[in-house]
Design goal:
This is Hydrogenase expression/formation protein HypE. Residues 169-314 form the PurM-like C-terminal domain. The chain is of the alpha+beta class. It folds into two domains: 6-158, 2-Layer Sandwich (60s Ribosomal Protein L30, Chain: A); 172-339, Phosphoribosyl-aminoimidazole Synthetase, Chain A, domain 2 (Alpha-Beta Complex). The chain has helices at residues 24-37, 41-44, 77-90, 111-128, 182-192, 208-216, 231-243, 258-267, 289-296, 318-321; strands spanning 58-65, 71-72, 75-76, 94-106, 131-140, 148-158, 172-176, 223-226, 247-250, 280-285, 306-311, 328-331, 337-339. The radius of gyration is 22 Å and the shape is globular. The two termini are 33 Å apart.
C-alpha cells in the first residue's frame, strides 16, 4: 500500500540535507525555485544583503510561521507568511515594499509541497506589489522542524502618520472588515479531521488593497489592527488599555459565519477569541463610519464589513456606566452586558 505520509517521499523528490549545505544542490534549489518565483533585480544580484533606498518614515515588522497543518482550506503556510507580514505593515498605513524570507526545511520534505508553498507566496506578493529581496534556506535533520517553518520580515513606507492603538477617541466607531473566527475554525477543522457539511475556509488574505482605498479617501482613521491571535477580543482589549477608554460592542452586530458559530458551540469557544488572518478592526469618527463601510464593501474579502460598536458610548446600564477605561463591554441582543475579557491561555496553538 502506498504511504500517505509526505515525509516518506522518494529521495529524489524530497529535500535533502545537501540542499542546505551551500553546494551544488543548494544552489540549484535556490535558482530553480526561489529565484524563479521571487524574481526581481535586488534579489537576483545575489549579494549578502539587499541594498535599499529608503527615505522618510518607514514601518518594519517580522514574524515566524509554524502553522499546523501546513496546508488548510483557504491557504497554506506560504500564503500565510506573506499575508501576515504585509498586513502588519498595512495596519500601520505602510505600503508593503520589501520582504525577506527565511526557510527552515526538514529533511525529507517533498519538493512538490515546497514548490506549492513558494508559488503561493509569489502570488500573494503580487497583490500588494511587494518583493522578496533577500532570504535564507536551512535544512535540518528529520524530526527537527515538523516539515517547514518560515520567517518573513517586511519594510514599507508609512503613507499616513498618527494611526495607533493609542489614538482612539471618545465617539469613535468600531468597524470590523468581515466575519470573524474563520482562520481559527479552518485550522481546527483541518487538525481534527472534521468533515462538517460546510465550505468554510480561512480568511487568509492580503489587506493592503482595502487599507489603501481607505487612505485614498482621506478618512480620519485613528487605529487599525488585524485580528490575528486572540481575535477580536484581543484587539479591542489592547486598544482599550492603550488609549485608556472603554469600548462597547453590540453582539448582534458582529458578523460570524454559521459554520464558525457551530464549531464554537461544539468546542465551547467564543468566536471573538478565535484567530483571523484576513480581518481587521478600525476606529474612526462616527460620522465617517458609513463611508468606510461603503469602501470596504467594494472588496470581496470585506463584503460583510460591519459597524459593531463605539468608544465611550453613553448607556444607562449600571454595569456599563460603572466601567472604567481599559474595559470592553459586550452588549447582547437582550440588553444584558458583560465584559469581553482578554483571552487567556492558548485555545489553538500553532495557528500561524
Amino acid at each position: 500500500m502506498e504511504s500517505t505520509n509526505p515525509m516518506e517521499t522518494p529521495l529524489e523528490q524530497a529535500v535533502q540535507l545537501s540542499h542546505g549545505g551551500g553546494g551544488q544542490e543548494m544552489n540549484k534549489l535556490i535558482k530553480s525555485l526561489f529565484f524563479k518565483a521571487f524574481d526581481n533585480p535586488l534579489l537576483c544580484r545575489e549579494e549578502d544583503a539587499a541594498a535599499l533606498m529608503l527615505q522618510g518614515n518607514c514601518a518594519f515588522t517580522t514574524d515566524a510561521f509554524t502553522v499546523s497543518p501546513l496546508f488548510f482550506a483557504g491557504g497554506n503556510i506560504g500564503k500565510l507568511a506573506i499575508a501576515g507580514t504585509v498586513n502588519d505593515l498595512a495596519m500601520m498605513a505602510a505600503k508593503p515594499e520589501y520582504l525577506s524570507a527565511s526557510f527552515i526545511i526538514e529533511e525529507g520534505f517533498p519538493l512538490s509541497h515546497l514548490k506549492q508553498v513558494v508559488e503561493s507566496m509569489a502570488k500573494e506578493l503580487a497583490i500588494s506589489d511587494a518583493a522578496i529581496v533577500c532570504g535564507d534556506t536551512k535544512v535540518v535533520p528529520r524530526g527537527c522542524a515538523d516539515g517547514l517553518f518560515i520567517t518573513t520580515t517586511g519594510v514599507g513606507h508609512i503613507q499616513r502618520s498618527g494611526i495607533s492603538a493609542h489614538g482612539l477617541q471618545p465617539g469613535d466607531a468600531i468597524i470590523v472588515s468581515r466575519d470573524i473566527g474563520r482562520h481559527g475554525s479552518a485550522i481546527l477543522m483541518a487538525r481534527e479531521g472534521l468533515t462538517l457539511d460546510s465550505d468554510l475556509t480561512s480568511d487568509c488574505a492580503t489587506l493592503w488593497p482595502a487599507v489603501s482605498a481607505l487612505l485614498d479617501a482621506s478618512l480620519d482613521i485613528h487605529a487599525m489592527r488585524d485580528a490575528t491571535r486572540g481575535g477580536l477580543s484581543a484587539v479591542l482589549n489592547e486598544w482599550a488599555l492603550a488609549s485608556d477608554v472603554s469600548i462597547c460592542v453590540e453582539e448582534e452586530s458582529i458578523p460570524v459565519a454559521d459554520p464558525v458559530r457551530g464549531l464554537c458551540e461544539l468546542y465551547g469557544f467564543e468566536p471573538y477569541d478565535l484567530a483571523n488572518e484576513g480581518s481587521f478592526i478600525l476606529a474612526l469618527p462616527e460620522a465617517q463610519a458609513k463611508q468606510a463601510l461603503e469602501i470596504l464593501n467594494q472588496f470581496e474579502f470585506c463584503s460583510c464589513a460591519a459597524h459593531i460598536g463605539q468608544v465611550d458610548k453613553q448607556v444607562d446600564n449600571a454595569a456599563e456606566t460603572n466601567a472604567k477605561g481599559g474595559k470592553v463591554i459586550l452588549r447582547s441582543a437582550w440588553g444584558s452586558s458583560r465584559y469581553l475579557e482578554l483571552p487567556q491561555g492558548e485555545l489553538l496553538p500553532r495557528i500561524c
